Amino acid sequence: MTDRDEVTRLLQEVSDGKPAAASALLPLVYDELRRLAQHYLGQERPDHTLQATALVHEAYLKLIDQSRAQWIDRAHFFTVAAQAMRRILVDHARRKKRQRHGGGRVAVDLTEAVEIPADGLPAVDLVALDRALSRLAEHAPEKARVVEVRFFAGLPVEEIAEVLGVTTRTVRRYWQYAQAWLYREMEEADAEP
Asked: Which helix (H) or strand (E) holds 27?
């Protein structure tokens, strides 16, 4: 049995309420969750106070603590993990901004922010991205979901297609649309007084 199959089996046991499965699952998903956390935190300013280990643990506890969660497979788990990390990071960013009375907003070209180069991303205003992504989800939820799993989970196009039940061509089309829409939305928000 591959690790992928073992993760899926354990997730189904977690869904069935077997507490031992959550303990057995963590070692199998920890490295990938940590990689995701480091990826996100690599986008933040160097003095960011949230550490990758803390982000992984907080997200994992939120995921496993969901009594109604019905896990489908590994890809579904990492998609939801990406959403959980997004919420944690956005909440953290909001708290920091409130502490600084709204300071420190930096405009970032969305094409730079949304593309995922191998050497990491520039700092992204996660609060602004979250707001724009929420607005996109109001009228095009499937396109917003592609951004979530590509940007926040770092899933490749093939896995996104599998998770969403669409073709890879559709994923690419949704990605292009979402990039353009988010770029325009964030540009307009920056232009507002």
From this structure: helix 19-42
Contact 97, 104 (CB under 8 A): yes
DSSP class of 185: H
191 within some domain: yes
**Separation of alpha carbons 191 and 175, rounded Å:** 24
How far, CA to CA in Å, does 73 sit from each of 6, 10, 11, 77? 10, 9, 7, 6
Each residue's pLDDT tens digit, 171-187 = 999 999 999 998 888 88
The pLDDT tens digits for 4-59 are 889 889 988 888 888 788 889 889 999 988 888 887 777 666 666 778 888 888 88
Question: CA-based angle 8:150:188, to the nearest 5?
Answer: 145
* Residues spanned by the domain of 112: 105-193
